[in-house]
Specification:
404 residues, seven-stranded mixed sheet, 13 strands, 16% strand, three-stranded antiparallel sheet, homodimer
Chain lengths: 404, 404
């Protein structure tokens, strides 16, 4: 945890990945993030994977370092409290993260009525308010027909909820940007971040939409071949698989040197009258010829020997490993990665979990704060944010409007 | 384009996706983003896909709305100018986005020497400075062994450079957060965002690392089945494929209603003594039994009829379509999506490209600014940012230190 956002208060009324990961990024950079949930937990409170006791490892991963207040969100009073907490005064407060519908008790209109300069960032499915999830917008945008090997026509979902993760980081960016603007103008805003528009804009930004318009055709499926340059998986003498990529001339020349392929590739260049080093696209066009040279060169040597040669030559590569292998054996990625700290989580389990992916150079990486227990900070939030007295808080408990 | 970041100046010395998409997000929210490249273009200047004339659709997608200055980055004088532009004075300046190595002329040390309170965000491969790319860190972290069908053991890369995209959005968040901190403290910072740590932290945040630690095993490959709840692809009577997801009770009940499966599923619940509506995990555990009910129900009806029933019932679903189909036929995602504007790009082509994925409610979405031509703003930047005279700028052109 770092303190770049120290003093900022953000309220989160969200579930699943995109909204909660937005709050997580903010919390891990030092903001006070208050998450409200309905009593007993929202729709993500039992989301898999689960700990043996039934607690959600997913929930406790996505809510690290936040405060938790539990409210009866089905009751008018509970809903009023949620809006009041989101809209509480303070120049460093009035920031709200949600994935609730644009209409309803957490609508921008209702939030604005409670605080005119509120800043809200709303992760959505489709921009028009229709429901969507990462896996449905991904299917709509063609990724599952582009992923996979040419010998298998089945649409292939990737398992990574990339759009949710992107939505969380982008929402954090949008909210802090809106805070910057509000400090100058005094005006609030709601920024809507639909998953559908994250998909559409990302494919536009990378030129894929333009490519379809220009070519009037889809890019074919090509398995693990990297599009437009040199890259693919290869098998080593000892049966390991590696991903090897060369985009820049330096990467390309390093790979040839590490594999003793400089002469063979020069000969191919003379035959084809091309220069592979100067133009990564030519490497892609002639990749079948190049793969025929690389395959035996890699298959002839064991992983340890290849890895040493690659690292010396500055080659960009990785072994394919399962997550279990990586967690247990890859010290750089997990075992000795300083972004991980072992703490006790609400499940009662102690295990290593990650702080922020950004590292502030020359600053100490603070301790890792685990997720709260559901409703752990109910009384604290009611007292500190809403200024309620002990008697008022006790009455809310008695009425079943709050819990924790 | 919106004006949340109006008045902020950011300098970008970066290539490929992560760094440039950071700059793009900033530019599309109103910052002045000055990108410098070496004369003739950096390593991403000819990255595929290409326009018929050879211009990179990728480059012009990722650099929309930026200013471009071309410098000879192999010369000491060109490098000095790059550092001077990044470190130019002004309380709303001195923000820098890069993916250059931690050592070298754009090191944090060199930047700090030029401006003590500079803010720099540096997207990296591995945190230790070793080279990595999206596709190599992805292989190292197990995603390609988790993606794909159980009947095919090949590691399966997904084609989406998700870590690069996440890195760009997270870097934008980190930079604006650092700007907020600097306004209070006056202190600069460098935030390092390694792709390796984006992967490791994301898998931790979603509980996948904890799952491996708790289970001491990998989650098996499961094709297009959604983990931990109900979701998969299905084929319709007319041969379309759809992705159907139900996580919340409301989504589940809606899907059963739309498919007339309420009674059949109740019978299965009695047989298995479970409640599918209350526990999405039970839906996952018994998914083979559920799929056996859903498959014929979906296969019996054409897409148009199913889609209407799904939309009425609030079901979360999408048709699988290729990107070409989506771009040409899906008005909501592309054809009539208001985030797209048709403009002329540096390739000379006119086509629709996306503005920011975030929509500021109640604010006009400004025009879409295309990418610059390489070096289009060389003289302007030298004059306005560095205060050079016409004679000085002319001399730099004569010496070949700048171009454009």
């Amino acid at each position: 945890m770092y303190d770049l956002l120290k003093g900022l208060r953000v309220v989160e009324g969200a579930a699943f990945i995109a909204g909660p990961s937005c709050g997580l990024h903010l919390a891990q950079m030092g903001a006070e993030v208050i998450r409200f949930d309905t009593i007993g937990g929202g729709p993500d409170f039992r989301r898999w994977p689960l700990a043996p006791g039934g607690a959600s490892l997913y929930w406790e991963g996505l809510n690290k370092g936040k405060k938790s207040i539990a409210l009866d969100l089905n009751s008018p009073r509970g809903r009023e409290l949620a809006v009041a907490i989101a809209a509480a005064p303070g120049e460093n407060a009035g920031l709200f993260v949600t994935n609730y519908p644009t209409k309803g008790f957490l609508s921008y209109e209702n939030l604005k009525a409670a605080r005119a300069d509120i800043l809200s960032v709303r992760v959505m499915g489709w921009a028009d308010g229709a429901p969507a999830m990462d896996y449905t917008v991904n299917a709509a945008a063609g990724l599952p027909f582009a992923t996979g090997f040419p010998d298998d026509p089945r649409p292939m979902n990737h398992v990574l909820p990339a759009w949710d993760l992107l939505g969380g980081a982008y929402a954090a960016f949008a909210l802090i940007s809106a805070d910057r603007a509000r400090r100058a103008s005094g005006r609030g805003a709601e920024i809507r971040v639909p998953l559908s528009d994250l998909v559409a804009s990302s494919l536009s930004h990378m030129g894929a939409v333009a490519e379809v318009l220009v070519e009037n055709a889809d890019r074919p499926r090509m398995g693990n071949d990297l599009y437009g340059a040199f890259g693919r998986d290869f098998e080593t003498a000892d049966g390991a698989r590696i991903m090897l990529v060369a985009i820049s001339p330096k990467q390309w020349i390093g790979a040839l040197r590490a594999l003793d392929l400089t002469d063979a590739v020069s000969e191919l260049e003379r035959e084809l009258r091309v220069s592979f080093a100067k133009d990564e696209g030519v490497r892609f066009t002639h990749r079948a010829r190049l793969f025929a040279l690389f395959e035996p060169a890699i298959k002839a040597r064991p992983l340890a020997e290849l890895g040493a040669a690659f690292d010396t030559a500055g080659v960009t590569w990785s072994k394919y490993q399962t997550l279990h292998e990586a967690v247990n054996n890859d010290a750089r990625l997990f075992g000795k990665n300083p972004i991980f700290h072992t703490v006790e989580h609400p499940s009662g389990l102690r295990y290593a979990a990650a702080g922020p992916p950004g590292t502030v150079a020359d600053a100490p990486r603070g301790p890792l704060a685990p997720a709260p227990k559901l409703g752990q900070h109910t009384d604290e939030v009611l007292a500190n944010v809403l200024g309620l007295s002990g008697a008022q808080i006790g009455a809310l408990h008695d009425e079943g409007v709050v819990a924790g």
